[in-house]
Amino acid sequence: MALNHNISAGGMLIAVSTQLEADAPVRVNFQMPPGDATQHIIEGRVLRIEENRDDPEGIWPYRVAVVFDEVDQELVPFLERAAQHLAQLD
User: Fold this and answer.
1) Cα-flanking dihedrals φ and ψ of residue 3, to 5°?
2) What does the buried/exposed string (b/e) look like for 53-89 if buried means 16 or more CB atoms within 10 Å of the residue's CB?
3) What pLDDT does 33 receive?
4) What is the DSSP string of 12-68?
5) Under DSSP, is residue 84 helix (H, G, I), strand (E, B) or coil?
6) What pTM was estimated for this model as a whole?
7) CA neighbours within 13 Å on the CB side: how many for 8?
8) Which domains does the chain have, with CATH numbers?
9) Tell me: the pLDDT tens digits for 4-40?
10) What is the mean pLDDT of the chain?
C-alpha cells in the first residue's frame, strides 16, 4: 500500500510504510482518473528512497521514486488535463 505524491508518464513519487532497496523491481497498481474502475498496472524499479520528512514517525515514513519501465500512453491525456487544471489554480 502506498500514497501517491505525484505522477508523470515516466514515473511517480509515493509514500510507503516499508523501506525498499534502490533498483528493486516494483509493480504499481492504481486507478486514473480517481474513482474510475480501470486499473493501471505498471512495472518499474526504485530509483531512490528517502525519509518522508512530512511523516517520519507516522504510517508513511519513506518516500520512493519509481521509474516506469515503459510509458503508459493511456495515462498521458489524464496527466495533461491534470497539469492544465493545476496551472489554472495558480
Assistant:
1) -120, 125
2) eeeeeeebbbbbbbebeeebeebeebeeeeeeeeeee
3) 65
4) EEEEESS---TT-EEEEEEESSTT-S-EEEEEEEEEEEEE-TTSTTSS--EEEEEEE
5) helix
6) 0.79
7) 7
8) 2-89 (2.40.10.220)
9) 778 888 888 999 999 899 999 999 887 776 677 778 7
10) 86
